[in-house]
Amino acid sequence: MDVLPDVRDGLTRLERMILLTLHELKAEFGDRPVSSVMIYGRVVEKLDASPSAVVDALIRLKGKAPD
Questions:
Q1: Quick one: which of 53, 66, 52 has its CA closest to 14?
Q2: ∠34-37-39 over CA atoms, to 5°?
Q3: CB–CB of 66/18 below 8 Å?
Q4: Which of 16, 37, 51, 64 is the most buried (most CB within 10 A)?
């Protein structure tokens, strides 16, 4: 897995996949909350990642998001 951030947007491959998954889940579930287990399950369908790597990436993405 790519661990170095891309120079275009500063996101790793895992972070980009999480954002895509969140976008797909929002289209599917609307504004209802989605568990991190569901996010993890959808991400590992496309990318090999450990649960801790996904949680760490979610935390990093939250830190990058404007409040």
A1: 53
A2: 60
A3: no
A4: 16
Half-sphere exposure of 56 (CA within 13 A, CB side): 8
Is residue 39 a contact partner of residue 25, using CB atoms and an 8 Å limit? yes
pLDDT of residue 45: 94
- pLDDT, mean of each 10-residue run, the chain (67 residues): 70 92 94 92 92 91 75
HEC per residue, the chain: CCCCCCCCCCCCHHHHHHHHHHHHHHHHHCCCCCCHHHHHHHHHHHCCCCHHHHHHHHHHHHHHCCC
Q: Are 18 and 47 in contact (CB under 8 A)?
A: no
